[in-house]
Amino acid sequence: MDMPQFDAGALPMRPVRRGNAFEETVERVLENLKLGIYGAGTRLPPERELAAQLGVSRATLREALADLQAAGYLVSRRGRYGGTFAAEVLPERPVPANQGDAGDLEDVLLFRRVVESAAARLAAEATLTPAARGHLLAALEEVDHAATDTFRPKDARFHIAVAELSGSSRLVAAVAEVRAQASDLLDRIPLLQANLDHSQAQHRELVDAVLRGDADAAEAAAVAHLEGTERLLRGFLG
Amino acid sequence: MDMPQFDAGALPMRPVRRGNAFEETVERVLENLKLGIYGAGTRLPPERELAAQLGVSRATLREALADLQAAGYLVSRRGRYGGTFAAEVLPERPVPANQGDAGDLEDVLLFRRVVESAAARLAAEATLTPAARGHLLAALEEVDHAATDTFRPKDARFHIAVAELSGSSRLVAAVAEVRAQASDLLDRIPLLQANLDHSQAQHRELVDAVLRGDADAAEAAAVAHLEGTERLLRGFLG
DNA sequence: GCGCAATGGACTGATTTCAGTCCATGAAGG
DNA sequence: CCTTCATGGACTGAAATCAGTCCATTGCGC
User: Which of A61, A118, A161, B92 is the most exposed place for a label (fewest CB within 10 A)?
Assistant: First the structure.
């Protein structure tokens, strides 16, 4: 941890813009694809609507979509009932040789732990509608039956589903964001079958705890689950 | 809680832009002033540097600073050893009649609880350098001796100081952001002397727990402290 | 005193981004 | 068939934003 901890004046102000609108739009859409929010073959919202959601003009959004289409992430169809669809199979990502800071690795992992364990606890404490329970179980089934090459997005989707049960939109956003960041790191290390099996068991444990409203157990399950990938990441990258 | 919880496709993508660069820059700088990151009379970084921190061109930053100067939040001095300074006394804020969503109130409070309690716990678990301990105590003294009209910024500064001890820059950012949002809400309700005294005691308790490394006590103190303002806010706004 | 140097102030032209408009496509439904 | 209409595709002119340059001011050290 090498933070500029003291001298308030030295704390840099958090950026307002991280790049141009085009780049950020590409990144955001890609993030949603990688997290499996839009699974293979599903339709994205119409451009006009998506542009509004992203707070960006349709022209800018279209540039971003065109790039993603050229890169094979998206397919467009014109005409009524057409639209923009997530590709059936996402292209291999050209490993971003960029090694990322090690300090940043710990930062992401720590923050992930904070938000995801809280999400698990709050989900367990919430009173769930039958629909909510069904949604959670469906997400669990999805990730359980996922082939190894579709595991990560479905895993992310599952964890976001848990966060949604917490009822806090800010928490959902935080989980999604930190997942996306962690996902970038995870793409640089191999996916081990043993670890995958272990994950499934932990997912079930988490769901069980949430469904029976056991907040402590839910939090513990979430933390145990996270620690697994933390160890992997530290091993391969640290 | 009225979240669009299911049907992933319906989850809107998180905005990339929340407004134009100018507005966001004003907001960000104002946020830092209100949080007391730049206390009365202190000097902000030079424009060229600040623009870089914010990821915005100097022209845009200057427009924002000009507005804030016109509104009495800032004072500029030219020449070497000149600069832009936080005004000695911040203008009364023109209460933004805007009532804000009630659902959003709960969302902010919930997320604040998540990040701040985690920050308190992590701060207590961290091994603190003497400098860090001194910094924390200094922040405590500051808020302790604050007059009622300077209480809120120093209070925010104190809580951010705690978060800094956690060693996670993401957590610090999250605390600062949620504080700023809560601060907007707090400005709409009166500051009660009794509540203020209560706060001071809770601050001491939190600091004690952090300094002796008692994570459970630190978290408990933080939660107790937050619940105080939560009740106030719900009472006046809910 | 004098010049150095760091700062805010002001301008210019290029680039990005925007809002708005109209066109092209093509499945659904008659 | 033919019409309908929600969608992607393409263009325009305006506005915002940028990077870069030069100017104006002023306290400090020589």
Answer: B92
The answer to whether residue A21 neighbours chain B at the CB level (below 8 Å) is yes
Using DSSP's 3-state secondary structure scheme, residue B83 falls into: strand
User: Each residue of B22-78: pLDDT tens digit?
Assistant: 999 999 999 999 888 898 899 999 999 999 999 999 999 999 999 999 999 999 999
User: Is B52 near strand C, with its CB below 7 A from some atom of it?
Assistant: no
Condensed to tens digits (0 to 9), the pLDDT of residues B180-217 reads 988 888 888 888 887 888 889 999 999 999 999 999 99
CA distance B177 to chain A (A): 10
CB spacing of B165 vs A5 below 8 angstroms: yes
Residue B218, both tokens: 């630190």
Which tens digits make up the pLDDT trace of B81-135?
999 999 987 777 655 545 556 568 889 999 999 999 999 999 999 999 999 999 9
| A203's tokens | 């997912």
From A187's Cα to the closest Cα of chain B, the distance in A is 21
Q: Which of A15, A115, A167 sits opposite B114 (nearest CB)?
A: A115
